[in-house]
Every structure is written in structure tokens, then in C-alpha cells.
Amino acid sequence: MTSNSADLTELSAQDRILQTAHDLFYRDGIRATGIDKIIAESGVAKATFYRYFPSKNDLIRAFLDYRHQRWMNWFEEALARHGAKPGGGLAPLLPALAEWFQNPVYRGCAFINSVSELGTLADVVEISRNHKQDMTAVIAQLLPEPEQREQLAIAVAIAVDGAIVKAQFENQTSDKAETLAGLAILLKVLSAQKAMDSP
Amino acid sequence: MTSNSADLTELSAQDRILQTAHDLFYRDGIRATGIDKIIAESGVAKATFYRYFPSKNDLIRAFLDYRHQRWMNWFEEALARHGAKPGGGLAPLLPALAEWFQNPVYRGCAFINSVSELGTLADVVEISRNHKQDMTAVIAQLLPEPEQREQLAIAVAIAVDGAIVKAQFENQTSDKAETLAGLAILLKVLSAQKAMDSP
DNA sequence: GTGGGAATATAGACAGGTCTGTCTATGAAA
DNA sequence: TTTCATAGACAGACCTGTCTATATTCCCAC
User: Fold this and answer.
1) pLDDT of residue B145 exceeding 90
2) To probe the interface with A, which of B147, B185, B193, B194 has the most A CB atoms within 10 Å?
3) Which residue of A114, A160, A189 is in closest CB contact with B193?
């Protein structure tokens, strides 16, 4: 999920804007990033910017959609890399998330950040809610038991979101050990949930 | 934890500013709230504002300290109201948090929101980290086992933070049933953790 | 080959709004 | 008189969005 800003030259103007906005919005915050900065760093003219994104709010929505796509792709790919199979259990979650948390550009979940920052915009909240639902659906695929799978997936997603937040509070250069240890406990007890409930 | 804006008349100018800022920052966001709006709603003059808060950043820090105090007081009081005793277990957590999540002005955790919005300000992150440590310490008091109490408290705090975030994504007027059900599962399995580990 | 038009792009001036912070003038209470 | 307060003008920075002028490339017709 690294963004290679050096590769902007081969992209269309629209993609350059979107990728630059993605990086700056994620790093510094949406409101903290003026459109002139995006324009300067993506190397487009103002008229081009407004051709593709008629307003900043349009760009914000595009950013969230783009982020959703990228993140979901990464999430599923990282889980698979760590051995995920349908119904195979929660084990791949921890190393996959560790990968993300330990990325030097990590600054939490773009959707949580956006709702925090722009919670008064209904479509930001809607997009973010949908993102979390999709994340929860992927987690549900990991769970072995069809019974109460949805409920358990929600509980796991809550644990994941909590870890995402806590990792954001840890020093950026740290290995997020405390967060990962706490999440490990949660995933362990949630995995053991079925053993307890099985007759 | 209701703020009664109608009671501002009996407060000092400084407290009026602080309380007004608290309400507006929490409701709309810090950057979304200009100082002129705080000034207008607290009924002070600009010179008075700057007498007590030499810059907006000073006000933000004061807001976070004030919020910390208020929230921690509420948290401990709500747990006690729901039957909390040292070592008495996690049961009071769910109703206490339900109380908060179901408050019509609920908009998540001010500290999570602030880090999301202003993550580039080091002292905002520091204050927020300290807040979470204090919250975790209160949670630790609920746990019965001295062994691994710190680790378990961290896991519980992660679950709580996840629920805080998810409740913010639910519709503001809803009863946050999905979040509370998910959190209930987490607290149940975490509470059962000791039973599993005890010989 | 040349010229013209269309499409897309660049650089950036400009208007108007919002924001933070500085400051003046005045008023009220002790 | 001192202290603390009010109302609000003002400067400068930043922001979003509108618009002008210009440049480049491609395609087509002559």
C-alpha cells in the first residue's frame, strides 16, 4: 500500500490529483490540505483540477472511494499472504494488521479520521460506514462457524478498529508492540469462543 | 456529561469560553470551529478571549485537559453507578458506555477525533495518549486478577475504543444496539479469560 | 507539407470569504 | 484610579472557486 510519488509522471492528470490528494489527506488531514498544495504537488493547473473535481467535496468523496478500493485490495491480499482461507480462522489478521501498523506512513484509518474531521458531512459518514461493513464482511469470511458468524465478525471488527486507533496513538516509529499484544489477546479469546460454545 | 449552555451566565469569562469551545469543538470539529464563533456564543470580547487563551492552540490544549477531566469523572462515576467495585469485574462497563453512546450529542471520543484531525501536533497526541492510559488504568481497577492485569486491561481498552468508534458510525439517533452487542461479546470472552487460565 | 480546429493541458490573476491575531476606544465595577 | 470587561475595526494569511491567456498535441483537409 505504498504510494510511489515518484511514479506520478506516467499517470493521467486525474490520477495524479487523486493520488496526491490521497497521500496529503491521509498524512496531514483533509482540512489541513489546501487545494493549491495538491495542485502544486500533482503538477496540474487549477483549471485541470476543477475539470476533474468540480469542488473540494467531490475530491474528498473520490479520495474516500479510492482509499476504500486500495485498502480493501491490500487487506484481502495481505490476509491471503498470511495464509487466510475461507473459514480458516482469525490467525492471519494479526500479521496482516502488523504489516500496516508498522508502515512508517501509518496514521490510522482514513475513514475513522474522516468521520472525526468531517462528521457533519452525511456522505462522508455513509461512505465510511460502508467501508466498515465491507471490512467486517471480509473478517466474517475468516470465521469457521456459520452460526452467529455475523455477530462474531462485528465483535472482531470492533477489536480491529480499537487496535487501529491505539496503534495511531503509539509513536510513529515504534513497532506497535503494545497494540499488537492487546489485539492478540482479543483474537485469541474470540477464537476460543467457539470452543466454549460447542457442546 | 451534559453541558448546559443555558448556565453560562454564572460562569467566569474563562470558563464560558472553555465550555463553549468544548461543546463546539466536540460537535463540529476543532478546525471547523472558528474563534469568532466561540467568542460570539460565549459572550466575551476578542481581547478577553486572547487574555485567557493567547492562541487557538492554547485553547485546544485547555479543551483537551478540560475534556479529560470531565470524561474521567463521568467514567468513574458511571461505573460506580452501575455497581463497579475494585476487582469486581467488567460488567459495569457495558451499561456505562451504553449511557454515553446513547447520548444524543454523542460524537465519539474527543481524543480520537483530535488526533485524527490534528495528528501533526505533537502535544495533541501526547495529551490523548495520556488520556487513554488513564482510561486503561480505570479499567484495570475493575479486573479481579492482579496477574496480567495490565495486559488484559489493554485488551479491554482496545475493545472499548473499537466500540467508541463503531458507535460513532451508527446513526446518531439509534440506540447503538449493534455496537453494544458486539462489545458485549468482547467483554464476555475477556471476562471468561481468567476462568480459562485458572487451574 | 501546412494550416486550422479541437481537445487537453499549463500558469496564475483575481474575487470574495474565512480565519487568527493585534489593536483602539469605550464602559462598568470596585 | 485600577482592573476587567465590551464592541469591533483592521491586517495579513489562507482558502475555494472563476476566469483569462497561452501552449501542446493530434487529427483532418487542402
Assistant:
1) no
2) B185
3) A189
Choose the CATH number for B8-54 among 1.20.1200.10, 1.10.10.60, 3.40.470.10, 3.40.50.970.
Answer: 1.10.10.60
Which pLDDT does position A1 carry in this prediction?
A: 55
Q: Specify the pTM.
A: 0.92
Query: CA of B190 to nearest chain A CA: how many angstroms apart?
Result: 7
Cβ–Cβ gap A116/B118 under 8 Å: no
HEC profile for chain A? CCCCHHHHHHCCHHHHHHHHHHHHHHHHCCCCCCHHHHHHHHCCCHHHHHHHCCCHHHHHHHHHHHHHHHHHHHHHHHHHHCCCCCCCCCCCHHHHHHHHHCCCCCCCCHHHHHHHHHCCCHHHHHHHHHHHHHHHHHHHHHCCCCCCHHHHHHHHHHHHHHHHHHHHHCCCCCCCHHHHHHHHHHHHHHHHHHHHHCC
Mark yes or no for CB contact B125/A169 under 8 Å.
Answer: yes
Q: What is the pLDDT of residue B79?
A: 98
Residue of B119, B155, B165 lying closest to A161 (CB–CB): B165
C-alpha B123/C-alpha B121 separation (Å) is: 6
Which amino acid does the sequence have at A64?
L
Under DSSP, the state recorded for B155 is H
Verify whether the Cβ–Cβ distance B168 to A119 is below 8 Å: yes
Task: Report CB contact under 8 Å: B157, A179.
Answer: no
- Which strand D bases fall within 7 angstroms of a protein CB? 4-9, 14-21
Distance from C-alpha of A61 to C-alpha of A56, rounded to nearest angstrom: 9
Q: State the architecture of A9-54 in CATH terms.
A: Orthogonal Bundle (1.10)
Look-up of cell digits 478540560:
B66
Task: Write down the pLDDT at residue B161.
Answer: 98
Q: In chain A, what residues touch B157 (CB-CB under 8 Å)?
A: 162, 166, 182
Distance set, CA B181 to CA A155, B82, B98, B166, B198 (Å): 8, 18, 10, 11, 27
